[in-house]
Amino acid sequence: MKTLAEPLLRLEKVTAGYGDAVVLNGVSLDIVEHGSLAVLGRNGVGKSTLMLTIMGFTQMRAGSVFWRGRDISRQPPHWRARNGIGWVAQEREIFPSLSVEENLTVAATAGEWTLEAIYTMFPRLAERKRNMGNQLSGGEQQMLAIARALRTNPSLLLLDEPFEGLAPVIVEELIGAVSKMLAGRKLAIVLVEQHTDVALELTADALVLERGAVMHRAASTALQQDTETLERYVGLRVAAD
Ligand SMILES: Nc1ncnc2c1ncn2[C@@H]1O[C@H](COP(=O)(O)OP(=O)(O)O)[C@@H](O)[C@H]1O
Ligand SMILES: [Mg+2]
What range does the domain containing 222 cover? Predict the structure, then answer.
């Protein structure tokens, strides 16, 4: 018998939501070490709720979350953060009254993502290191939010619509950074993204959520060709136009 390695993260039939409101309905997924997964779907289908559930911020009604084979369903968010799950919220929270460098120091742990490594990945942050968080552009704030998550040296990084509402030049820089992280096999990434073409280009695997359930699962290259599925569940947003 072949022994399959445990995935890094596994969700098994997870039903979760907020208080009485159930948002996710029996969601299963897994992601391997250094893997990449795009989570697609229209507004309001539960993509952010999925990220929040992986972090432990929602109420689980059924199912389990496994991390490196261990059931962490009852572990609080800070335990998950300390044990290698990094999360960049859709609201890209940074500390506005701390400098860039201070933002990059407060939550840091020892590991390969030193300040130097961060500044190599994001030269723009090096230039702005003495600026306060609230003096940054939206794009710089997003870089800082990602960089801050990296400083915790996560094995898995959850990115919730990281390119939303940013200038194209910044989006290009961020895409470059994400693809470098993946190419360097530094971590696994779950990427929630409305820009389907970008998300599928960056990732190996994809799933499509619809009303809190997984409607479709495929290799990202296969989904790129599957315009019918994309039109039905995501709304076609491709770079061609
Ligand atoms: N804090 C919350 N309390 C109650 N319902 C919420 C909360 N956050 C989101 N929802 C609901 O959960 C559903 C999914 O939202 P969300 O996960 O943000 O979707 P997406 O990220 O795909 O746009 C929506 O119906 C939304 O109104
Ligand atoms: Mg969202």
Answer: 33-52+84-234
The preferred substitution site among 49, 51, 54 for testing ligand 1, maximizing ligand atoms within 8 Å of CB, is 49
Mean pLDDT of 199-213: 97
Residues with CB under 5 A from ligand 2 (ion): 47-48, 90
Distances (CA, A) of 220 to 38, 132, 232: 8, 38, 16
222 in a structural domain: yes
Average pLDDT, the chain: 93
Atom in ligand 1 nearest the alpha carbon of residue 52: 17
pTM above 0.90, yes or no: yes
Please state the domain count of the chain.
1
Around 60, how many Cα atoms within 13 Å sit in the side-chain half-sphere? 23
pLDDT value at 57 more than 90:
yes
CATH number at residue 145: 3.40.50.300
